[in-house]
Fold this protein.
Amino acid sequence: MVQGIVNWNTGETQEWLQQYVDDWVSFYRKHTNDGSVASYIPILQEADPNDLGITIIGKNGVSVRSGDTHRPFTLQSISKAITFIVACMERGVSYMLNRVDVEPTGEAFNSIMHLEMKPVKKPLNPFNNAGAITVTSSLPGETSAERLEPVFQLLERMLGYRPRLNVDVYESERDSSTRNRAIGYYLLEMDFLESDLDVTLETYFKQCSIDVTIDDLARLGMVLANDGMDPKTGGEIIPRQVARIAKVLMLTCGMYDASGKFATYVGIPAKSGVSGGILAAVPPRVRDETMPFTDGCGIGVYGPALGEKGNSIAGIRLLRHIATQWDLSIF
Amino acid sequence: MVQGIVNWNTGETQEWLQQYVDDWVSFYRKHTNDGSVASYIPILQEADPNDLGITIIGKNGVSVRSGDTHRPFTLQSISKAITFIVACMERGVSYMLNRVDVEPTGEAFNSIMHLEMKPVKKPLNPFNNAGAITVTSSLPGETSAERLEPVFQLLERMLGYRPRLNVDVYESERDSSTRNRAIGYYLLEMDFLESDLDVTLETYFKQCSIDVTIDDLARLGMVLANDGMDPKTGGEIIPRQVARIAKVLMLTCGMYDASGKFATYVGIPAKSGVSGGILAAVPPRVRDETMPFTDGCGIGVYGPALGEKGNSIAGIRLLRHIATQWDLSIF
Amino acid sequence: MVQGIVNWNTGETQEWLQQYVDDWVSFYRKHTNDGSVASYIPILQEADPNDLGITIIGKNGVSVRSGDTHRPFTLQSISKAITFIVACMERGVSYMLNRVDVEPTGEAFNSIMHLEMKPVKKPLNPFNNAGAITVTSSLPGETSAERLEPVFQLLERMLGYRPRLNVDVYESERDSSTRNRAIGYYLLEMDFLESDLDVTLETYFKQCSIDVTIDDLARLGMVLANDGMDPKTGGEIIPRQVARIAKVLMLTCGMYDASGKFATYVGIPAKSGVSGGILAAVPPRVRDETMPFTDGCGIGVYGPALGEKGNSIAGIRLLRHIATQWDLSIF
Amino acid sequence: MVQGIVNWNTGETQEWLQQYVDDWVSFYRKHTNDGSVASYIPILQEADPNDLGITIIGKNGVSVRSGDTHRPFTLQSISKAITFIVACMERGVSYMLNRVDVEPTGEAFNSIMHLEMKPVKKPLNPFNNAGAITVTSSLPGETSAERLEPVFQLLERMLGYRPRLNVDVYESERDSSTRNRAIGYYLLEMDFLESDLDVTLETYFKQCSIDVTIDDLARLGMVLANDGMDPKTGGEIIPRQVARIAKVLMLTCGMYDASGKFATYVGIPAKSGVSGGILAAVPPRVRDETMPFTDGCGIGVYGPALGEKGNSIAGIRLLRHIATQWDLSIF
């Protein structure tokens, strides 16, 4: 495992920072025993529950990597943040906010009952499955390939390479996702979908099945932390308003029905997936100048052992520890 | 329109009874203006909203027909009672009661949220869509044709002819029923279904699309009123226990979320469908001997203009009037 | 313990009937071990969980008593049926049905959420606590004593004596019933109550705390079975329409959220209370002439060990056995 | 109306800043017509619906005041933030977070059903009424006066004077708050309350009835923005951890069921009350140096005309405008 801190500009390593992070990863790796890998999508069960890895990339190019940093894993619900951003870029922010609300719900990610309980005019937010599928239905294009093209393009602009669809995960997901089909038909009934349900679900399952690494997530997080601008060139990758809204949603709804607790104990906009990944965006902050990453940073975490709410159990604890030590909270 | 009261045995007509029923049908036909035909299945909108007809068949063979007695219409939710009976006959009563509860819910027929709200182990009753689809999934056979064969056979034994599937209605239903697919996938997720969802739904849409007349419904009601025995021969068509449970469910859950009001104001086991049909079974009762049909009767009603709960608006009022006049309540 | 069957008119005993019932009570007494006495009102915990008793009174005066027939116990939820009847008599049926709906809910008796979940215009039925408290608020009179006076008078007309308020139970109930106060304030907020909440709740707790025996319940049941008429004199005690509606509600909502199962397996209008009492009304029926009580009967059961839904566990099983043996079902 | 920007240290005024804010207040004052004053507490209806005022106080002492700055109004739900802070200071953070969760709910502030719908072990957050009343029950002391003493003391330390209880509002609130009593009894039933309900509710209604001005709210907001430290002296008024959690809750749950939209469009931790007040805390941020208040600021708004979610309608729009102009978002 190749690790180390590199300054993108100078190439210098900062040994002390690396040492700390290595110690923390070692410590929290034991916490993976408190969780278990996702079982509702069969292929996800093949992950190694003891994996834990983190990448932190700062605006100034300083980065830290530790633990199992090279495992590829699929985006799963993290893709909800990406497709929401793409849909806002393709269709406009106000258009999208007319189609999906931005209120946290307190319900599980796969809840369907809140759609029936009150006379809602749109799904409650883009990060529960009902809202996310609605967002996916808004992507332009006929086929799932056409719809995902701008998603892949955006990812490529941020990552420097075009990530790949994990076909095995996609097929496993497609073949096991009865709840999402239930939600999909319910949305169709409510007239919330903008396109054919089958294509929408195919697109949705594919967006969930894009392979990434924690380096990738950290890069995405860095762009969001930087309000959508490329941290190196300063060029706009995501419009500032869209990047901001994405961070708001990550904070209020990003960690399933533990979002409130994550905001309270960690205080960073983040989005998790049941594959065990977490994408976090730490905006710049005015704090003790001796702290690392005061200019903002992106963080990618991978730890497939999940807690009861579906978030990486060791990943959350590791993030809480780091956020406390380095005072990363946005509040 | 040929009408009249015939005694199956003697052929005698009872003019006075006929006169009363004709008057009542004329009176309540005006009430069809207070409702409107079902719109959620497109083809049902083609029905004539002013239609109203009733057939009453007594155990002793006396029958009364009045109004629009010859219109064919599809069973729709009335089929839920039939398939529940068939499933009990094919799989056993205790088997079926383990798969679906028998509690009224207070929710709309197409509600899905009660499945999520509490940790239910089975759908709450066989007459809301979730329960009915579960029942249909329990019918033996591979194809929808095989599964419906015992349904058609039971109907044929009661009606004396084999009713036909209305293909136009079936196709309209199949193509428009997103809510039922949502419910179906939810049931699949809960592991409530015993067979392939597509076949189950195809079977379900077909059972809803069987063409009948009010004479047919009255005959079905007469058999149920007679505890499952053929009123002429005394032979068992439906086991007594099954016929009884069907009548209980018709009383407690048969008229959608107006079942309590129908029980209160009419007091007869009945099952309605959105096509405007109502199947009612009046058990024999100890009352004033001068009343007609004290030996029990079956009643079929057709009136496609529906009230807000999905029941024939004039049909319910006509039944209420007759039940009050002749004291048909089981209470 | 004095037992035996007496014919009110002739004084004859029917030994064989008595023998059967004694055997069944002995058998089902063991089932009391499957339940436990109510704990949410402290004083109810003092009941002997192994008690089981039944009284059946026929229209013709034949009666059977067996088991623990002399234990006094409080009406608890059985009083909901009585006050609903009294309110209908005092205020009129249509007035009351405008204030409280008659739909079963599928929810627990003390549920409050269904009031918030949908835009209901009235409590869903008079037998859950929300509806029952609303009914009690409709009783005329200033003080709880004035409000209960017609309740006591009606009971006295049916029982031949004026039952007493059990002050210890009333005080225990009043002091422990936080949930009912929550419901009461919610009803006040919804503007459903017709009178002062404190007086309403005092009245409600008192109506629940009236001491009766199973003989009393059997007499009440007999009057209801007889459509409100005194079985000896034929005089009207309760208007027929009111007696009928009470029986409908007992069947659809009388046994908490096990009402559907009770209707399915027993098929008799009945109302239970957490004290372990059950009041059942068996209307006359056309069945095998050799069966006892074909002219209808009232049944009182006492068995304080409750099942999970709050009904006497051995009492329900005993009633199911008897109803099956004697074919008492109204269906 | 005396207005102007004063630098607490130098006394200098910044005319241009004042001019902008005056213009914006004039503009948004017209928006008060889109809302209406709260009606559920009778005395609140006496407010002038066209009032609108704002005070902004920066860390460096610069302040801006505009509009109706001298109207006293009661804290109402804003007090939920204060008592949560006091309870954390008195009982400890982990103690309080064990008693009340920190998850947004998506439900109305006065919802009770979420307590019944799932097997919750604690109210979902301290800012809906169920959670807030639970928090109030945790305040130490026997009488409401004793319980409120640390609340008043904390307010006095931040405001420089001891605010007064508005007895008229308290009495109006106490006499009209049936829903809060329903919630209170429900909490009692769930065993969530730590002290006598009557004292708890008395305390709760009193904390809602403390009179403040927008200057007061701005000072409170400034202390929270400054992580609990006195902006002048640097001394700790509120422990940093507690101030942080308060800001998290303000962002995720502070604006009733429009909290998600406020976070999305404004992006500032804020707490509103039905009196029309809004308390906002803007942490320091790294942004364009030419923007005002980059060191953080506290904001107090008053505008009693409310939108459908219970927040000051013009106040929210004014805050959105200012936050956009000066880039105050924490994201």
Q: What stands out?
A: The first helix of chain D runs from residue 15 to 29.
